[in-house]
Amino acid sequence: MADSVVSIKTGAEDIAARGYRARMLFSFFAVYVIWGTTFLAIRIAVEELPPLFAAAARFFTAGVVLFAFMRFRGQASPTLRQWRNLSLVALFLFVAEYAPLFWAEKSVPSGVVSVLAATIPILTLVAEAVILREKHLKPGVIIATLLGFSGVAILLLHGAHSSFGLVPCIAVLAGSICWAAGSVFNRSMDLPKSRPVTAGATMMLGGIGLFALSAAFGELHPFPHISLRAVWALLYLIVFGSLVAFTAYVWLIGHMSASRVSSYAYVNPVIAIAIGYFWAGEPITPRILAGTALVLISVFLILRQK
C-alpha cells in the first residue's frame, strides 16, 4: 500500500515537473521569438495605419483584456495613488517609448529599430548612475557600455547616410531613454503588488495617452481602405506581442532570475533582423552588422555582470 502511494506521488511530481518545463520552454519561446517578430509586424501595420493610432490600439486593447481578466480573478483594483503612479509609468514606458518607435518604423528597417530598442539595458545602467547616483561601476561594465554606444554611433551614422535618415533613429533612441528612466523611477513608486494588474493597467493607460496623441496629430479621421494584411499585423501585436508574450514574461520573472529573463534583449534583434531580411527583404549592410554586434555584445556583458 505504501509503495503504491509513493508511486502515485512520484508520478504526480513527474507530471508537474514536465508541465513546468513545458511552460518554461514556451515562455522563453514567447519572449525570444514572438517578441522578436513584433518589429516586423509593427512595420507591416504602420504601412497603412497611422502609427500613433496603431500603437494606441495595440496597448489599449491588450491592457483592457489583461486588466479585466485579473479583476475577474479577484485581484484588487489599484488605489487612487497607485492609479496616479501607473499613469506616470505609462507615460514613460508606453507613450514616450512606443510613439516614436511606431513612427520610425514607417521608414527605418525593423531590424535596425530592434537593435536600437535593445539598448535599453545599457541606457538603464546609465540612468541608474545618473538618477540613483550609483557609483563604483566595474571596469568591465564601463567597457561594455562604451561598446554599446559605439554600436549605436555606427547605426546612427549609417542612418544619416542611408535612405531612412538619422532623425527616426534618434527618435527610437530617445524613446528607449524614456523607457530606461521610467524603469528606474518606478522602483520607488507605490504600485499594485500583482505584476499582471500593473501590466494591464499601464498598457491601458498608455493606450489612452497614445490615442490622445494620435488625435492631437490629426490621425483620428476616416481611414482609407485598410488591407487584411495590416489588420492581421495589428491583431498579432495585440494577441501574441502583448497578451501572450507579456504574460509569459511576467511568469518568467516570477520563476527565473532577472538576468536570465533579460537575455531576450540580445535575442530579439537577431530574430528581428533575420525575419526582416528573409521575409520582407530588408537590407543587411556591413555597418548594420557591425553596429548590431557591438550593441549585442555590450548588452550580453552588462546583463552578465548584473
Could you tell me the radius of gyration in angstroms? 21 Å
Portion of residues in helices?
A: over 70%
How many domains is the backbone divided into? 1
Number of strands: 0
Characterize the overall form.
Answer: globular
| Unreliable runs | none
| Percent in strands | under 5%
Largest sheet composition: none
N/C terminus separation: 51 Å
Structural class: mainly alpha
Average pLDDT works out at: 86
Instruction: Give the ordered list of helices and strands.
Output: HHHHHHHHHHHH
SS summary, helix count: 12
Describe what you observe in this structure.
The chain is mostly helical and 306 residues long. It has one domain (44-305). The chain is built from twelve helices and no strands. Helix 1 (2-46) packs across helix 4 and helix 3 (80-104) packs across helix 8 (195-216). The chain is globular, with a radius of gyration of 21 Å. The model has no long low-confidence stretch (mean pLDDT 86).
Task: Provide key terms for this protein.
12 helices; mainly alpha; 306 residues
Topology:
Blueprint (H helix, E strand, L loop, with lengths): L1 H45 L4 H22 L7 H25 L5 H8 L2 H12 L7 H22 L6 H19 L9 H22 L11 H28 L2 H4 L6 H13 L5 H20 L1
Helix pairs in contact: 1-4, 1-9, 1-11, 2-3, 2-8, 2-9, 3-7, 3-8, 4-7, 4-11, 5-7, 6-12
Question: What's this, in brief?
Answer:
The protein has 306 residues and is mainly alpha-helical. 78% of the residues lie in helices and 0% in strands. The model has no long low-confidence stretch (mean pLDDT 86).
